[in-house]
Amino acid sequence: MELAPVLAAIAFLIVVVFAILYLSVRVVQQYEQMVVFRLGKTNEGLVRGPGLRFLIPVIDRPIKVDMRETFIEVPSQTTITKDNAPINVDFLIYWRIVDPLRSVVNVQYFAGALQGVATTTLRAVIGDILLDDVLSKREQINEVLRAKLDEVTERWGGKITTVEIREITPPRDVQDAMNRQLSAERTRRAVITESEGARQSAINVAEGEKQSSILRAEGDRQSAILRAEGFSQALERIYSAARGIDEKTMTLQYLEALKAIGASPSTKYVIPTEFSRLADRIGDYVAAGLTGGGGTDASLDTGGSSAAARSGSSAAGDAGSSGGSGIAG
After folding, report:
1. pLDDT at 135 exceeding the cut of 70
2. Tell me: domain 70-170, CATH 3.30.479.30, correct?
3. What residue segments make up the domains of the chain, in order of their start?
4. Contact 54/67 with Cβ under 8 angstroms?
5. Percent of the chain having pLDDT more than 90?
6. Are residues 33 and 67 in contact, defined by beta-carbon separation less than 8 angstroms?
7. Are 158 and 103 in contact (CB under 8 A)?
8. Nearest Cα residue to 77 out of 37, 127, 112, 5
9. What's the DSSP call for residue 156?
10. pLDDT at position 5, please?
11. How many C-beta neighbours within 10 Å does residue 60 have?
12. Which residues pair with residue 79 across a beta bridge?
């Protein structure tokens, strides 16, 4: 009977010791900080880091603060832009605690307070921006929201790291107008592209014709130069040959011309004045041949002249027998 009270006292002491150990020992994780309130007061010196920490039972009250980065999702909010267009916007906010003491002392529920401030800040930021800018300048809006929220949450010991707008939903009529505008823009680009292609094609054709004309003109020029050179060479040869021709040869050529004229069916002739002196030359050649009297060369010349004279007489006779009237110029 005397042993039972002793065992009960020992058991009570063991329970008290375990209770004291439970109340006085805390394990703080690597990603946590512990703020200790001693008799309801705290300060920077009562902020404990990771590890095994001891407290004064009943006197100390610990509060653990998670220092890891986390996020909250702001549900879709209806806001009005500067040009009075209602849109729905939802976004994410990434944040973390940088001062555990202020996050415990200065605000009761950091995440809830941050969400409320984010909603009002979003309406203020979107209200100063046109609808087109809201749709096209999402990165700038994210940065403005982050700066404004970070300025507000600084007194709560928090840090806003990133703000990401997830979706912007304009009204139905605005979406229809945007679709029509997009279709018109695509049509405009197609027409511009087609016209640019046609213009480039016309330029290429014109360039081809230009090059063809240049080459053709170059060919004509080369051809004209070659013809001129050939004509020049022919004239030089004719001139070279003509320098060796004497009057007797020219007289024979005149006789041949008269012979051809006599064979023509024409009844009227135009005879140059040189032909009027042709008979005198032939008479001189014949007289020289008759009076020369000797030498093989003279006989040959005389024979040639006599033949030329006979040919001329025959041509003259033919011309006279044709009954035509001669016109001497």
Report:
1. yes
2. yes
3. 3-66, 70-170, 247-328
4. no
5. 29
6. yes
7. yes
8. 127
9. G
10. 80
11. 18
12. 87
